[in-house]
Amino acid sequence: MERKVSIIGAGPSGFALAADLQNRGIDVLVYSHPDHFRYANEVMVKGQLTVRGKIESSMPVCITSDMAEIIEFSLMIILTIPSTGHETVLQQLRGFSLQQHTIIAIPGNLFSLIADIEIGCVLETNLSPYSCRMERDEVLVLGKKSLIFIAALQSPPSQAIYDAVQEIMPVKLCWCSSVIEVCLLNVNGVFHPLMILMNAARIESTNGDFFLYRDGLTSSVAKAMIAVDQVRMQIGNAFGHSMRSALRVSNECYGHTFTSLVDLARNSGPHNGLKAPPDLQNRNISEDVPDLLVCWHSLAEKLGIDASPIKAIIVLAQMATSVDYFQSGRSLRKLHLEDISRSELIERFMAQPDGAIVSRL
Ligand SMILES: NC(=O)c1ccc[n+]([C@@H]2O[C@H](COP(=O)([O-])OP(=O)(O)OC[C@H]3O[C@@H](n4cnc5c(N)ncnc54)[C@H](OP(=O)(O)O)[C@@H]3O)[C@@H](O)[C@H]2O)c1
User: Fold this and answer.
1) Mean pLDDT of the chain
2) Parts of the chain belonging to CATH 1.10.1040.10
3) What is the DSSP letter of 277?
4) 161 vs 71, 152, 156, 168, 316, CA distance in Å?
């Protein structure tokens, strides 16, 4: 197998992945969009990438802002940009022949349904393998997950792709039968927006000088999260997926055994040391509200599920930021699913009999 991977996205996740893969002898080329070059610039000026924490490494990394080089470098491309940047990347990928390529979107947030170009295989995960932050040229990896969930739009993928992805990816993969299931397993949609909105005044009055999970996820915040989580699980259940709570998904991904959301917030190493952002202009809102909550709300509406807890958060986020997330977010219209009936929607993304997927775990 080709021991080379192209990574599109030069932020904490992309550079943590680059270091992890290089440590395992896999060559990488990292793409940074010219308008989003701040981290790439720091690494290039320093001449090497330093990663600390759960991954230790200090080595040069190749960076480009030429998409043609990325496509030429490897048939395996991993996207590590926020889903709000997917459209920008798709615009740049148009015009290239990608029939032989595999693209893995980390996380996907239904990237495969908005990717309107011909790609050999599109896969998407629920989360990033890492909990990480970046300052200047240095990445701090606070946590590395034990497993993440993944699915292909055309499920299951061929054995050759399955083997190649399995060999490249730095964590155990739990293969799901539909991209909708994987999108619902991105439990950041349960955690992030409520934690930011219910702590908005504190964020703004302290410039984020408190621990977002440890201090900001208290019992009433947890209760609100559980209300959202119940809607998320009802949506998955309507497709026949056996849904687990966000707490259980997080425990599975990190190999933890926390008994409540507050227990997780206080005691989880990858979470309890995270500082709050300095303001509300961050991807806990700008990515997770439009590309997870609007999507879940839109699915729930089509399925006839009461999604008022999710709608309440979207409306509050809109009022607090003056951004129309219902308009900009991944609604069924944006996902090209608007015109199909409820039963067609369920049929297209329903859980498959376990055989094909489970036999590969
Ligand atoms: N880091 C974590 O701990 C973590 C954990 C779970 C999930 N994730 C998810 O993993 C993904 C990547 O995380 P990250 O922390 O590396 O994200 P990030 O720093 O916000 O973004 C990654 C890179 O993408 C660039 N970018 C942003 N918008 C873009 C656009 N429209 N076009 C092209 N490039 C764009 C960023 O540039 P700028 O710096 O200029 O914005 C940055 O260089 C996100 O979806 C995130 O939610 C991350």
Assistant:
1) 95
2) 187-356
3) P
4) 17, 10, 10, 11, 42
Cβ pair 93, 20 in contact under 8 A: no
CATH architecture of the domain 187-356 equals: Orthogonal Bundle (1.10)
Q: How far are the Cα atoms of 295, 305, 330 from residue 325, in angstroms, in the given order?
A: 10, 20, 9
Please tell me the distance from the alpha carbon of residue 266 to that of residue 263, in angstroms, as a whole number.
5
- For residue 10, the ligand 1 atom closest to its alpha carbon is 43
Q: Is 13 near ligand 1, meaning CB less than 6 Å away?
A: yes
The protein residue whose alpha carbon is closest to atom 35 in ligand 1 is 85
Instruction: Look at domain 4-183 and name its CATH class.
Output: alpha beta
Question: Does 136 score more than 70 pLDDT?
Answer: yes
pLDDT tens across 324-339, in order? 999 999 999 999 999 9
Ligand 1 atom closest to Cα of residue 83: 45
For β-strands 147-152 and 119-125, DSSP reports them as: antiparallel
Per-residue pLDDT tens for 196-206?
999 999 999 99
187 Cβ closer than 6 Å to some ligand 1 atom: no
The number of the ligand 1 atom at minimal distance from the alpha carbon of 288 is: 47
Domain with CATH 3.40.50.720 in the chain: 4-183
What DSSP assignment string belongs to 45-95? Answer: HHTSEEEEESS-EEE--EEES-HHHHHHH-SEEEE-S-GGGHHHHHHHHTT
Nearest-CA residue for ligand 1 atom 45 is: 82
